[in-house]
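Lab manual, section 2.4: Encoding a predicted structure.

Procedure: take the sequence of the chain (379 residues), apply the prediction step described in section 2.3, and record the output as structure tokens. A sample record is shown.
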Amino acid sequence: MITRQQIEQLQAFQNGTFLVTSCYLNLDRRDLPAAAHKIRIKDLLQSAQQQLDKKAGTHQQRESLRCDFAEIEARVLPELATNRCKAMAVFSCVGEKFWQTFSLPRLGRNILVADHAPHLQPLNAILAEYHRYCIVIVDRAHGRIFETYLGEIVERGDVTDELPRRVREAGQGGRDERNMERHFTQVVEHHYQHLADATFKLFKKDHFDRLILAGQREAVHEFQKHLHPDLAKRVVGDFHADPAKITLPEVSQQAGAIEQRFERDHELQIATELVEKDGHGAVTGLTAVLAALDRGEAQMLVVEEGFEKPGQACFGCHYPSLLPAECPHCHQPTEPCADIVDEVVALALHRNCRIKHLQGATPLRDAGRIGARLRFQVA
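Recorded output:
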């Protein structure tokens, strides 16, 4: 699972001597067979090698990059046979013995950039589309904490507190039984607080976005009172479970159903707001989106998953066009491209826009299947 610490380590990695190779690879075999992906990856690496040979640089830099390319080919191509991930981000600097990879849920195009710092725009854009969920399963003596992100789930903690034996026979007018019952209640409350503190500690470390609770209804209700306000407002659902018996696949299935419903509602809300605000802080349709991106107005690009359309593009300036035209930036003629929507996403990344892909039908479908939320609007 991708952790916040890994991203921070990657963001902090810079090198003045060697260059860092950042390589984003589409491995989705629904789009192309494995053999075609291999050819594309090899062509990408070969093209990068040819560009490297033309560029000035120290012998150390060139040798480190050549080793990066060889390492990527040697390690990534075998992954195509496993079909374990749809896309991958690879960051390599052989000169500094640095190597980091991330499995990704999607990727529009293959990208390779060599620079003194990792090229993180595509990675940040993809990660920003997905929410990190925490799942806490609780009873009066036992609690388990899980985290799920990008389809992976891991157990992050286990909190167990020993309960005292409850007294069944009253003594001294029932006072002993009342005292023991009070003590029992205090121990349970302490356990809930212990588990809530452990959850908040994980939140401060990983900054998860949403919280799902599980257990007997009474236990969940009482535990929720102990949550820090920053966690209480992130609760999006709960389900019935016994922390001592539930398995990891069962946690994934139950939490996944809640996550899917919440994300679907969130997407519908985004699409509905775009359509309702069209012309007033938002635009819909490919023509309006292209104009907003070119003027630098767009804050977030929203596109329906699977939307494709042929068009034209100036690949050097990241300028897409529906029809043949002269690029307004370099004044060269645009060239045909198989999918202008892919070029629009690339332009949005170049302009530091957030990207949001919608799964399934939403109100945006009848408004052109693509839209943008604006940061400002030129009069």
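Check your result against the sample. The radius of gyration is 26 Å.
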